[in-house]
Amino acid sequence: MKKLSVLFAAVIMVVSVGMAKAQKIATVDVMGVLNAMPEKKKADADIKTFLDSKQAEIKKKADAGQAKLKQYSEEAPKKTADENKARETELQKLQEEIAQMQDKAQKDLQAKQDVAFGPIEKKLNDAIEKVAKANGYEFIMDANSAAFVYKSGADATAAVKKELGIN
């Protein structure tokens, strides 16, 4: 029975190695291709501009809050307890507004990235699929993947870049 198990395991290994060799596998440097695409470069610039403007708005509001805090701290000994309490409430409200602005900016940024990068990703995937079909590849994997242990197959990066019309 033990010999039968060993024989069965050996047969399975031989068959699986034979099947693996029959498959055509290629890799593609996805990040390299994406970074070479003019659409991605423009989207990155647009996203950076958007992010910079949101950060400037938040900084302006935060600076105004810091100025008020400094002013209120200096004037606190001269004010009544009720006035100081009202000022404290005002500062807390301002702090909450800044936090809401940051949350909204993060959500807006994510939405803008989704809208900007969706078509770019689709274009890349379509080009990869076209190259795979044209060259008979059954699998194309990302060359930058941490899951790679060994790479020794066709590299489809050049073909994908050619399909997209980039160098």
UniProtKB/TrEMBL annotation:
The family this protein is said to belong to: Belongs to the Skp family.
SUPFAM superfamilies: OmpH-like (SSF111384)
Top-level taxon of the source organism: Bacteria
Matching InterPro entries: Chaperone_Skp, Skp_dom_sf
Compositionally biased spans, kind Basic and acidic residues: 71-85
Entry GO MF terms: unfolded protein binding
Region Disordered, annotated ranges: 62-85
Protein's name in the database: Molecular chaperone Skp
GO CC terms in record: cytosol
Keyword Signal attributed: yes
Signal sequence extent: 1-20
Keywords: Signal
GO BP of this protein: protein stabilization
